[in-house]
Design brief:
heterodimer, A: alpha+beta, TATA-Binding Protein, 6-stranded antiparallel β-sheet, 5-stranded antiparallel β-sheet, 9 helices, 18 strands, 39% helix, 32% strand, elongated, B: alpha+beta, Rieske Iron-sulfur Protein, 2 domains, 5-stranded mixed β-sheet, 3-stranded antiparallel β-sheet, 12 helices, flat
């Protein structure tokens, strides 16, 4: 049991776990790509359906979380060493560690290191010197970003649910639970933003007494009853009335037509007949957007089989009559095809993006201009000194200072020997 | 002619043995023996494989093995950079493993088998009789023997200070294998890789936008959407392919360049310290030479893949018309012979619309009529070469055996009837099929999600 626990612990904290798991999923992708054109979607579906793959994927955030803890502990341990509160040091905390056989006086050293731009701190048995700023905060931010990214992917893959429905003016919001408030108005306006060319707002009345009125926009998506409201396409909900000389009964249907922007066609099949209507929104003469203004004309083609019988424009609320055929649109409303998405992984991925950005902004100037360089000299008994060095950049310059300091110790030792002799 | 065709493959093989000899300096005899044996096994094995397995299966197997070698290089390069970047990462077991005779023998044998198999793909059609096999084995064995010992002789003349790291060795060996295979269009890896990257980029962008709830093109400025549209083009496939192609060898170079210098803190003479560091830096620079050569070879392989020395059969489309009943009839034999196994292209125009299609007799002696376009790429058309047709847009090779089957980058098949007077195609179906295909692919490539 102990061995198993130790093995699990090693697996979780190992630097190799994440690359190996990522490599596995890469190989899986390549394998899947041999059999299907839709490799990414298939792989995502495979992960969703397999507990083993989910467990394997969950190793990534777990490994990163363990790494954050491990690196924090190492950082704290190193800080304790530099403040002189730790009993002994671990050589693996440093790039270089050396034990000198004699114990020279440390007194002159502090002034020398101060002169070289190092800040120093001396205790009874140790002298620590450092220069620059540690990139550790950037490292923690980066690892936290990686953690959030993988956690977001995992949560999204495992828990995401999506439901698509048409949001229509005057009709209740088609939420997955079915108890959305009535959509009072859908507004589309031009935007002056640098990314979005249009602004959309769907004003939703309170579903229950005491609820607040909600306005759903485009981005960032609004949350409604636990789901993100993600508008996808614009269109029109149209009441279509049609009659033909050879049809016994007239036809009437509320059609949901994905016909935005103007010119995009959608078909309305007339059941039990050879007729089919192709409907699109007509361009307005003045260049305005009919969806925005609400003044809509519809271009209609009537087809019998593959043959087109006639085409013409019908205004919203109006009708078109010819040769015994009648086509009317007594009611039309703005409509937005909307996805209601329940996915908490999205929040983690957004957080990851912010953390990566913050990490980079911290790391770049520190790494370029003020990387941390550290030295630590600890006296062991009366005739030994342990010297340790570590850098996060500008290695050559720091290495030179470190070696010259050690040379100085050596020179002091020789001088002392000569004096004693 | 065959000898000329074999020259680049044999030179690659020579280079592979040379690199392996330097990479395993204490295992020369193992390298020589296994390389010769591996090469002969590769030549004979692939010769049998290509004749026993019909269609493109043999080529697919060899290409897959090459792909695995490339993946192995990726693994090695990531491990190399990881071990350099991480403090406290122990790689002693890896170093010990590389120096064992088993490792030297395995790497050399696999390299030999792959190199031999690639060489075998250039051989002309011959029956796999025992006599032919024995002859092939003897000739390939003799060639391998001569080249391996020539490589040994050259290797002995190279300075001992010129060392190669295990990751550098693997990168050079894989580079030479891929250079060798890139001259055979059915073994080429770079073009299929670009195509897969293009598809992945398309799927990834689509999934990413949906996952992050990013608004659709209806709500985004069109100039901005055009930038997003770049991610759907073949250029992203090419550059993504280049990234995947070159990254492993660049990682290996970085791993060598950023190798930690030896600790000199124990040396108290400054001059001696500097001497030691200078020697280490010089050694490090010398170890960079082989990965740098590998980088050049990878470049040559990618170039060879993008501009293959192959002439595609791509006839000018012949304009055809429909009969009064709306049928296009193409006679079996007129100025052209539909049953000569070559791709024959036609152009049909009607009411301002036009459709390009081709008729081809497949290896199973069955005619197929297809659009000169596929369901996923821009309709740049197809050319024919060496048992395949190639999609000019994404450079995907489609084996002739699968032409006429729908899906992926295969040409979109068209329903037709084969009669005594020729091939009959419904004109309206053809026009509609072309319009639908071209509309959907153009929209997809120009920024539709």
């Amino acid at each position: 049991m102990k061995r198993l626990l130790r093995l699990s612990g090693n697996l979780l904290t190992s630097r190799f776990t994440s690359p190996v798991v990522i490599g596995f999923f890469l190989l899986l992708y390549i394998g899947v790509a041999f059999f299907t054109e839709e490799a990414l979607i298939t792989q995502m579906e495979l992960v969703r359906q397999s507990a083993v793959l989910v467990a394997l994927l969950s190793l990534l955030p777990l490994n990163i979380a363990s790494r954050i803890v491990a690196e924090m502990l190492r950082y704290i341990e190193r800080r304790r060493l530099f403040s002189g509160t730790a009993a002994d040091n671990e050589s693996e905390l440093f790039d270089e560690t050396i034990v000198l056989a004699v114990s020279p006086a440390i007194t002159g050293l502090q002034e020398r290191l101060d002169g070289l731009g190092y800040r120093t701190y001396q205790t009874e048995r140790s002298l620590s010197a450092w220069r620059g700023v540690s990139i550790f905060p950037a490292r923690v931010l980066f690892l936290s970003g990686v953690f959030c990214l993988f956690l977001g992917i995992l949560v999204s893959l495992v828990t995401r649910t999506s439901y698509r429905g048409p949001v229509i003016e005057g009709v209740a919001l088609p939420t997955p639970s079915g108890n959305g408030g009535v959509v009072e108005q859908i507004r589309l306006e031009k935007s002056t933003g640098s990314i979005l060319s249009k602004q959309l707002s769907m004003e939703v009345a309170p579903a229950r007494p005491g609820d607040a009125r909600v306005s759903c926009g485009i981005y960032p998506p609004t949350r409604y009853q636990g789901s993100f409201v993600y508008p996808r396409f614009l269109g029109v909900a149209l009441l279509v009335q049609f009659s033909a000389p050879d049809l016994q009964k007239g036809f009437e249907k509320h059609a949901i037509l994905n016909i935005y922007p103007a010119g995009k066609e959608a078909a309305v099949e007339i059941p039990d007949s050879p007729y089919r209507l192709m409907i699109s929104m007509a361009e307005s003469g003045d260049g305005s957007d009919p969806y925005m203004t609400g003044r809509m004309n519809f271009t209609c083609k009537l087809l019998k089989g593959n043959e087109m019988l006639f085409a013409g424009n019908v205004p919203g609320g109006g009708e078109f009559v010819r040769d015994g055929f009648r086509l009317a649109f007594p009611d039309f409303r703005r409509m937005v095809i909307t996805d209601f998405i329940r996915d908490y992984g999205v929040l983690f991925v957004w957080s990851a993006a912010i953390l990566f950005g913050a990490s980079f902004l911290f790391w770049l100037p520190v790494r370029l201009f003020f990387p941390l360089r550290q030295m630590l000299f600890i006296r062991h008994g009366t005739d030994m000194i342990r010297a340790c060095s570590r850098t996060e950049g500008k290695e050559k310059m720091h290495g030179g200072v470190f070696n010259e300091t050690l040379d100085m110790f050596d020179a002091g030792r020789v001088e002392r020997k000569t004096n004693l002799g | 002619m065959i000898a000329v065709k074999l020259i680049p493959h044999l030179l690659s093989w020579f280079g592979i043995v040379l690199i392996l000899l330097r990479g395993f300096p204490k295992r020369r005899s193992v390298v020589i023996a296994t390389s010769i044996a591996g090469f002969v096994i590769g030549v004979v094995g692939a010769f049998l494989l290509l004749r026993v397995l019909t269609g493109s299966v043999g080529f697919v197997i060899i290409t897959s093995v090459l792909g695995m070698c490339f993946l192995f290089l990726w693994g090695v390069s990531v491990a190399a950079i990881y071990s350099r970047a991480g403090r406290g990462v122990t790689t002693g077991w890896g170093v010990r493993l590389v120096s064992t005779p088993l490792c030297a023998g395995s790497v050399t044998a696999i390299s030999g088998i792959v190199a031999g198999a690639v060489c075998s793909c250039t051989l002309p059609a011959m029956d796999s009789t025992l006599m032919n096999l024995a002859m092939l084995g003897s000739i390939s064995g003799a060639l391998a023997y001569v080249l391996a010992y020539a490589a040994l002789a050259v290797e002995k003349r190279i300075s001992h200070s010129f060392t190669v790291s295990p990751s550098g060795m693997i990168s050079a060996v894989v580079a030479l294998q891929l250079f060798s295979s890139s001259s055979i269009i059915r073994l080429d890896l770079f073009s299929p890789l670009s195509m897969k990257v293009m598809k992945f980029a398309h799927d990834f962008v689509h999934q990413f936008m949906e996952s992050m709830l990013i608004p659709d093109h209806v709500f985004v400025w069109s100039y901005l959407w055009r930038y997003i549209g770049l991610l759907f083009g073949k250029e992203i496939g090419f550059w993504g392919g280049m990234f995947i192609w070159f990254t492993p060898v660049l990682l290996v170079m970085c791993a060598v360049q950023y190798e930690r210098l030896p600790s000199v803190a124990h040396i108290r003479q400054g001059a001696e310290r500097r001497k030691l560091l200078a020697a280490a830096i010089r050694q490090r620079r010398l170890r960079l030479v082989v990965p740098f050569i590998a980088l050049l070879i990878f470049t040559a392989a990618a170039y060879q893949s993008c501009y293959p020395n192959v002439e595609y059969w791509d006839p000018k489309p012949i304009v055809v018309t429909a009969t009064s009943s709306g049928e296009i009839i193409i006679p079996m034999k007129s100025d052209i012979d539909l049953e000569d196994g070559k791709l024959h292209k036609f152009l049909f125009k009607q009411g301002g619309k036009e459709a390009r299609f081709f008729v081809l007799l497949g290896p199973a002696a069955k005619l197929t009529v297809d659009l000169d376009a596929c369901a996923i790429c821009k309709p740049d058309g197809y050319g024919q070469a060496d048992g395949t047709v190639i999609c000019y847009y994404c450079k995907t090779l489609i084996p002739l055996e699968t032409v006429g089957k729908p899906g992926g980058c295969n040409p979109v098949p068209i329903t037709f009837t084969e009669k005594k007077d020729g091939v009959h195609i419904d004109a309206l179906t053809l026009i509609n099929e072309w319009t639908n295909t071209v509309q959907s692919t153009t929209k997809g490539k120009e920024g539709g999600k």
